[in-house]
Amino acid sequence: MQVSSICLPAKVPVRVKSLHTNPATVNDPTSTAKVAAPKWAQKTITLPPLKRGCHLITSKIVKEVRQELSEYQCGLAHLFLHHTSASLTINENYDYDVRDDTETFLNGMVPEGPSAPWKHTLEGPDDMPAHIKSSMFGCALMIPISNGKLNMGTWQGIWLCEHRDYPTPRTVVVTLNGI
Question: pTM here?
Fold first, then answer.
């Protein structure tokens, strides 16, 4: 592990921890250095239907990939949600009020009901607003892996945001890559 300091244009010192291999030894047939080959793992997780709102799912995701995750010292975890009326985001993991306030904000930003201007209403009055909210947050996350764990901040958690009144089970594909 190498620790170094760098300076940003504003001359603010930043501590950087880096874990890396020396590329020169990877292609050197005379080198005795052992370099770990990158590996991949993938798991599809089905979450039960959750009521409309923002839900902390970090522990459910980690529980399902804990064994595979423990095999990585350095890498990336990619989470992809298979739906267009729910979304994933990383946000506050402690105070439930943040999740409630986020749902209130989304409902204020994206109107629904008979007075809403949406043409797509075949699947109900909450469907088009759900698609818009899903696009606002997105359906994918990328999280660093360090020493067998997701490397998130102390107060960060993975949220599933359910944007429909009548939810269905949601599937999340977790892909791990690294060494």
Answer: 0.82
